[in-house]
């Protein structure tokens, strides 16, 4: 059956021509020379005042990158990117490393205000209940301009700062963990990122600490012809807990801009990381002009026993999305989760999904993915669930639904399910009645049709997760939650 | 950029020389020469498929086919005699029996006495002479043409069968088609069968693929099916090849308007096998059901890859595949449903289920959907696991021994795919269902 009217309207309200964050900020910027070479890598490293080993690490990645070819397997089509026609570093000229908010260019502060991101702690404190406070790291093009609540977090022992600062202040931690989840040799874009990453966030939560507030990073691309390459590294030590949010927007331009990020999560024994993303990069116009090319490598390593990593993503932006937040379930009894809502409009192309790699015993994973495509967009779910021979009693449940609005778009599902152990139980959308027989029975007994019952259960499930997003990120998410699953397929 | 010169494996080199020899010997008709050349050029361009070719990701043919056996020639009198004995030992299903030995149709071994009027059976070598419409059909669909196994089959196209069922004919019984490989030196068997079911006709065909144990012969067969408007075809397939065989089979089917196509494959044989099903709706209001049961043990490898193309509106397809894996067997299921932009009101349901009976097997699933129309119902599912311990406990608590309890549950699991087969207007395939269930039970008994 086709999508219901209400859904069509909901999706329309976030169509590409409704993009609200397309303004530009006029700030004088300092740019590295255009193009990519060993010198640029050295330039970036020197700008950041990095230790020698980091420069070597970057150069290794760069040399490796020269030998790699761009991946072509994803269902996305775009003209070849000229990697020599980009600026790999762009920082506000006024003060690239401000010590306090007063030193930041007021135009930048204004930008974040417009985006609804509070950078002044007192503004945040006023009239907001303490448990709703969020610490923000604001990244503007290639640099982090501000990080809030650092002192308060430090009291709890939590390190939250930009990765450049972490390289200066806590090099031993960075050295120990960087590249341990996404090695420099991982893939074309991750290798590129390793060579030229300019900023991003670093989080370390010490053993047994429950991070006292939500952490978040807000990425803003502003400058023309630049690529943004941020690197995020989050380490949750034994028995700790952290919830992290990521938001992103960019100005409206006719040109395409490249964003190639790497996110690495490490959860040690009994630790839990919750990583949420509201991705709202400029999607280009309805004809497909402009927009961000989003090629992102996100991976979490449940390294310790009983650890847990949960990815939640709300994807509405980008001309091209190529991203597969994954979990390596290495520790015994570890858990991975992936909840995703991807809405594509206009001429957007989304190829996204997850990988759940079960290595440890009794590991569990759950994948819930909703893809909604409208306009002329193509929306693909691509996912892998695999169980290693040693991963006895591994369990996975996957449910991915797609919804099409109009017959000019496409919705595709490409799941890979690989099992090498008999005791692993994998269910990929295995008949809805089997998924939650009791719930279905309960709903249908009360007069709901099967479809209504499914919609209720799945929506209820996703809602449960998204409701945990803080208010700043809720606006988009709320709209999406309201989208009914009626008429969905596969 | 420098031109890339591919390094040919031993198998590829043998295939290249085999083609050259075949070409030198000449083709039965110029049109066949063209078909062969087209197939060969596709093979020459890409070589044997390997794991970097997405469609062959889990079945690395280049690694699994270390060498290519010499192409089998037409059987001589002694071969036919030996084959006759072997064929005689296979219980007949249905009324008429058609036999192919080493890929060549053998009228002597066949029994077409009870064949009703309106059914014409010709060897492929004879059928293509002076019949361009048959030759045109042999080219196959675009999906099949792009496929490496089908391209190789075309390159070595020599014989097989053409079965034509006149419009309105009700065949009334099953055509029992045996494809047997003779004992002796291992060879590469290549055969093509074309089945044309005329408008409003109905027929049932059962293919049985057998061969000697202990020989690593290779077989690459293709069955092309055209189900005319309003016609019904029920197709059963038993792959019980010898334990060391390599078996590649392609089914390429066009389903017309208001037609019904039902296919069921039981796979227990061969060391390495791949069954490919390319099915396409070419007329509205049609229905296709693709089913299969695969039972593997030892280090057997079996791949089922299907492509269901909903090219027109108002069609319904159901795909149900069951895999039962023991020891260190490797099962593969790759399914893809495409719903074209015009194919509104499509109903497609794909399911792949696996039971592992030991710790060692591996199963790779890829149930894919590609949807371009918005008013459709499409689903895919996939499950993988061991026998439900609760059910086992229930049965054992009632005094049923372990092995029997397993057999009972496996039978129930497989039955789901077999039970509804042939429930269409024909309903003449009861014998096949029984034979398949018997094979499943024998397989389970052999475990103990």
Q: Tell me the count of domains of chain B.
A: 2
- Rg value of chain A: 22 Å
Low-confidence stretches of chain A: 125-131, 430-435
Mean pLDDT of chain A: 82
Order of helices and strands of chain B: HHHHEEEHHHHEEEEEEEEEEEEEEEEHHH
Tally of separate helices of chain A: 13
Assembly annotation:
heterodimer
Helix count of chain B? 11
Q: Any idea what the radius of gyration of chain B is?
A: 21 Å
What is the CA-CA span between the terminal residues of chain B? 60 Å
Biggest β-sheet description of chain B: 10 strands, mixed
What's the count of strands of chain A?
Answer: 24
Q: How do the strands of the widest beta sheet of chain B line up side by side? A: 2-1-5-7-9-11-13-15-17-19
Helix content of chain B: 25-40%
> What do the pLDDT scores of chain B average to?
93
Question: pLDDT below 50 for ≥5 consecutive residues: which ranges of chain B?
Answer: none
How much helical structure, as a percent, in the residues of chain A?
10-25%
What would the keywords be for this entry?
heterodimer, A: 490 residues, alpha/beta, 10-stranded mixed sheet, 6-stranded parallel barrel, 13 helices, 24 strands, B: 448 residues, 9-stranded mixed sheet, 11 helices, 19 strands, 26% helix
Short description:
Chain A is built from 13 helices and 24 strands.
Textual characterization of the structure:
The complex is a heterodimer of chains A (490) and B (448). Chain A contains 13 helices and 24 strands. By secondary structure, chain A is of the alpha/beta class. In chain A, strand 3 (134-140) and strand 4 form a beta hairpin. In chain A, helix 2 runs antiparallel to helix 3 (52-66) and helix 12 packs antiparallel against helix 13. Mean pLDDT of chain A is 82; it is low at 125-131 and 430-435. Chain B has 2 domains: 72-387, no CATH class; 388-448, no CATH class. Chain B is globular. The mean pLDDT of chain B is 93. The A-B interface holds A 1-3, 73, 389, 402, 404-431, 487, 489-490 and B 54, 341-342, 344, 351, 354, 356-386.
């Amino acid at each position: 059956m086709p999508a219901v009217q209400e859904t069509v309207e909901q999706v329309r309200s976030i169509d590409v021509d409704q993009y609200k964050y397309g303004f530009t900020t006029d700030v004088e910027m300092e740019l590295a020379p255009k193009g990519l070479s060993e010198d640029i890598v050295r330039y970036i490293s020197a700008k950041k005042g990095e230790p020698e080993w980091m420069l070597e690490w970057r150069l290794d990645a760069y040399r490796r990158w020269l030998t790699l070819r761009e991946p072509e397997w994803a269902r996305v089509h775009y003209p070849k990117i000229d990697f020599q026609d980009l600026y790999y570093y762009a920082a506000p000229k006024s003060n690239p490393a401000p010590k306090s908010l007063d030193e930041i260019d007021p135009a930048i502060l204004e930008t974040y205000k417009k985006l609804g991101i509070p950078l002044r702690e007192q503004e945040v404190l006023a009239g907001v209940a303490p448990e709703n406070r969020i610490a923000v790291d604001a990244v503007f093009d290639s640099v982090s301009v501000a990080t809030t609540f650092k002192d308060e977090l430090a009291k709890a022992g939590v390190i939250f700062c930009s990765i450049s600062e972490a390289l200066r202040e806590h090099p031993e931690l960075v050295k120990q963990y960087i590249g341990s989840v996404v090695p420099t040799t991982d893939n074309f874009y991750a290798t590129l990122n390793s060579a030229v990453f300019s900023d991003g966030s670093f989080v370390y939560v010490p053993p047994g600490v429950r991070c006292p507030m939500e952490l978040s990073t807000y990425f803003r691309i502003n400058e023309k012809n630049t690529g943004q390459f941020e690197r995020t590294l989050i380490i949750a030590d034994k028995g700790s807990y952290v919830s992290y949010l990521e938001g992103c927007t960019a100005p409206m331009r006719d040109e395409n801009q490249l964003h190639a990020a790497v996110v690495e999560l490490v959860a040690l024994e009994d630790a839990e990381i919750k990583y949420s993303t509201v991705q709202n990069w400029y999607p280009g116009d309805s004809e497909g002009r402009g927009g961000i090319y989003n090629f992102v490598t996100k991976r979490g390593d449940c390294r310790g026993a009983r650890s847990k990593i949960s990815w939640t993503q709300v994807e509405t932006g980008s001309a091209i999305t190529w991203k597969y937040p994954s979990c390596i379930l290495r520790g015994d009894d570890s858990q991975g989760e992936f909840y995703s809502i991807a809405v594509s409009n206009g001429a957007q192309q989304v190829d996204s999904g997850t990988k759940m790699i079960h290595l440890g015993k009794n590991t569990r994973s759950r994948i819930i993915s909703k893809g909604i495509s409208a306009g002329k967009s193509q929306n693909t779910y691509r996912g892998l669930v695999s169980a290693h021979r040693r991963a006895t009693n591994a369990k996975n449940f996957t449910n991915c639904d797609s919804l099409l609005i109009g017959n000019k778009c496409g919705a595709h599902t490409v799941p890979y399910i690989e099992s090498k152990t008999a005791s692993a139980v994998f269910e990929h959308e295995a008949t809805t009645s089997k998924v939650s027989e009791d719930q279905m029975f309960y709903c249908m007994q009360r007069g709901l049709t099967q479809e209504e019952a499914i919609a209720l259960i799945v929506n209820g499930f996703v809602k449960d997760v998204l409701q945990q997003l803080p208010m700043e990120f809720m606006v988009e998410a709320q709209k999406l939650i309201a989208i009914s699953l009626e008429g969905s397929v596969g | 950029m420098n031109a890339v010169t591919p390094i040919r494996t031993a198998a590829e080199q043998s295939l290249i020389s085999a083609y050259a020899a075949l070409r030198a010997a000449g083709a039965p008709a110029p049109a066949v020469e063209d078909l062969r050349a087209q197939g060969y050029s596709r093979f020459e361009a890409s070589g044997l498929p390997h794991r970097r070719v997405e469609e062959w990701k889990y079945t690395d043919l280049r690694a699994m086919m270390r060498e290519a056996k010499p192409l089998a020639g037409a059987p001589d009198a002694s071969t036919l005699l030996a084959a006759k004995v072997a064929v005689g030992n296979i219980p007949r299903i249905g009324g008429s029996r058609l036999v192919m030995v080493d890929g060549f149709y053998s009228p002597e071994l066949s029994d077409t006495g009870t064949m009703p009027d309106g059914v014409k059976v010709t060897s492929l070598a004879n059928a293509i002479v002076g019949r361009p419409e048959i030759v045109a059909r042999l080219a196959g669909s675009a999906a099949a043409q792009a496929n490496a196994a089908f391209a190789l089959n075309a390159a070595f196209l020599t014989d097989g069968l053409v079965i034509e069922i006149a419009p309105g004919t009700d065949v009334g019984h099953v055509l029992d088609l045996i494809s047997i490989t003779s004992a002796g030196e291992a060879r590469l068997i290549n055969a093509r069968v074309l089945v044309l079911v005329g408008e409003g006709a109905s027929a049932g065909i059962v293919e049985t693929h057998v061969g000697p144990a202990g020989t690593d012969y290779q077989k690459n067969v293709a069955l092309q099916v055209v189900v005319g408007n309003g016609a019904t075809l029920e197709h059963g397939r038993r792959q019980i090849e010898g334990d060391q065989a390599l078996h590649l089979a392609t089914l390429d089917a066009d389903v017309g308007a208001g037609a019904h196509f039902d296919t069921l494959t039981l796979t227990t044989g061969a060391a390495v096998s791949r069954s490919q099903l390319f099915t396409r709706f070419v007329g509205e209001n049609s229905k296709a059901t693709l089913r299969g049961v695969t039972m593997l043990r030892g280090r057997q490898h079996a791949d089922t890859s299907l492509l269901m193309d909903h090219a027109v509106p108002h069609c319904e397809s159901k795909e149900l595949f069951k895999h039962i894996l023991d020891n260190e067997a490797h099962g593969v299921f790759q399914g893809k449903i495409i719903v074209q932009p015009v194919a509104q009101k499509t109903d497609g349901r794909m399911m792949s289920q696996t039971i592992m009976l030991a710790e060692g097997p591996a199963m790779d699933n890829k149930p894919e959907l590609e949807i371009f129309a918005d008013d459709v119902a499409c689903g895919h599912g996939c499950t993988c696991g061991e026998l439900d311990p609760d059910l086992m406990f229930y049965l054992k608590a009632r005094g049923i021994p372990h092995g029997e309890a397993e057999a009972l549950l496996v039978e129930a699991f497989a039955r789901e795919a077999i039970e509804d087969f042939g429930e269409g207007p024909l309903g003449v395939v009861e014998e096949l269902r029984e034979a398949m269930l018997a094979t499943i039970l024998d397989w389970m008994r052999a475990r103990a």
